[in-house]
Amino acid sequence: MSNTQEYVQWFRGAAPYIKAHRKKTFVILVSDDVIHSDRFIGLVHDLALLNHLGIKLVILHGSRKSIDSHLAKNGVDSNFHNNIRISDATSMPLIVQAINEVKTFFASQLSMGLPNTPMSGSEISLLSGNFVTGMPLGIIDGIDMQHSGKVRDIKHEEIADLLANHVVLLSNLGYSRTGEVFNLPAEELACEVACSLQADKLIFIHEDLGEGKSAPSSLSTSDVEAMLETGQVSDPIRNVLQQAIRAIQLQVKRVHLIDQGIDGGLLLELFTRDGCGTLITNLFYEGIRSASIDDIGGILSLIEPLQANGVLVERSREQLELEISCFQVIEKDGMVIACIACIPADVAGLMEIACLAVHSGYQNTGLGKQLLELAERQAQKSGANQLFALTTRTSHWFIEHGFSESNDLELPENRRARLNPGRGSKILTKSI
Ligand SMILES: CC(C)(COP(=O)(O)OP(=O)(O)OC[C@H]1O[C@@H](n2cnc3c(N)ncnc32)[C@H](O)[C@@H]1OP(=O)(O)O)[C@@H](O)C(=O)NCCC(=O)NCCS
After folding, report:
1. Is the sign of the CA dihedral 373, 375, 377, 383 positive or negative?
2. 201 Cβ below 6 A of ligand 1
3. Which residues, other chains included, contact 421 with Cβ-Cβ below 8 Å and sequence gap of 6+?
4. CATH 3.40.630.30 domain span(s) along the chain
5. How confident is the chain (432 residues) per 10-residue block, as mean pLDDT?
6. CATH level 3 topology of 3-284
7. Ligand 1 atom 48: the closest Cα is on which residue?
8. Which of 394, 398, 403, 423 to mutate for ligand 1's pocket (most ligand atoms within 8 Å of CB)?
9. Is the CB of 372 under 6 A from ligand 1?
């Protein structure tokens, strides 16, 4: 394929994401490792592009490295307790200086508009302000943490109003009602901002999660908890993971971790199907598991209304009993709220995705996508390389998840025998 064709194909592939992200609110924390690297200017261009595509952006920056080097340059040592810097009276003015330098540099780069660069004519309107109220961490284990603080409040309504026309840039400083300044952990602040704004995405552009190995494309919150329990994650990654779990628990829809070492990682993660980072979801909080015979009643309650209005094909209790080992269900508070079946066909390498349903009260929260991803992983494990699904009303959803219409697929004998031609279902396939 020529470069031009690849470009056109890539651009077309990005179209659904461009539409999906428009007017959504993304909170993005950029570690200051990136800010000091030669990849930073590329990231700035990518942030400008997101802004032009109508995404509402709150950008935060980390400052840890900058503070370290500023203190070292001035001959001031830092003391830490529980991996938190004690921002004492001597170091605090230097800490504020370091943070402000990073913020000013970030703002200057986002203000560029040089001709012949991707920023040409950008005119991003950037705002900062006293949106974050901080309070002292206080005395921990007998140690006064002084100006090291935590988030007390975010003026989220003011930020939300501004996002219609401006990008908001926040640094990790919080101001108290008594006029003091606090050094806040950037990861916690990003999480608080995302939660208070009910952001659609919280994105950490940070140290590589894979630490040399390739990072997983998705993790459930319970996977993340297990990683934290092993104690084999670096301190900066630990801070990010802990806040990622909190954000998910507090209803931020998606948390993405993107390796700061990948040039264009933000665009790849947001505008390609496979992404390049790690998506953290609440999969296991929703109780996803293989179905057992005891779930048949729950599955029937879920699918019967959909069968009645013709969205799903009829499945009797007897058929469910035969196929139950092919089902995955999501259970919440004792109720089956979603299900999917991954049924082997009589043809090697081929599997059918069937009986996908999410309870109406839980739709549009990503459960359908998660179930499909799980089914795909399982199909792959069992040696399948192609999936098919028959659908009358959900073809677009499947197409958005990588399927394409393929009405000439020769259905396996066992499936053709059960086909109801009166439904006029479309056949969709996907190579995995
Ligand atoms: C289709 C279904 C499984 C999707 O599950 P879900 O958990 O709601 O989906 P997700 O949260 O992963 O994705 C939501 C996105 O899919 C879109 N979507 C939902 N149903 C769709 C449909 N029939 N066609 C196209 N897009 C659809 C939503 O608008 C939403 O898009 P947005 O994020 O741009 O707003 C669910 O809507 C459902 O159970 N529908 C009824 C049963 C059905 O049609 N099953 C498939 C039988 S083959």
Report:
1. negative
2. no
3. none
4. 287-431
5. 85 89 97 92 94 96 95 93 92 97 95 74 88 95 94 97 97 94 97 96 88 75 85 86 92 90 94 84 70 95 93 91 94 88 90 94 84 87 90 92 85 80 86 88
6. Carbamate kinase (3.40.1160)
7. 391
8. 394
9. no
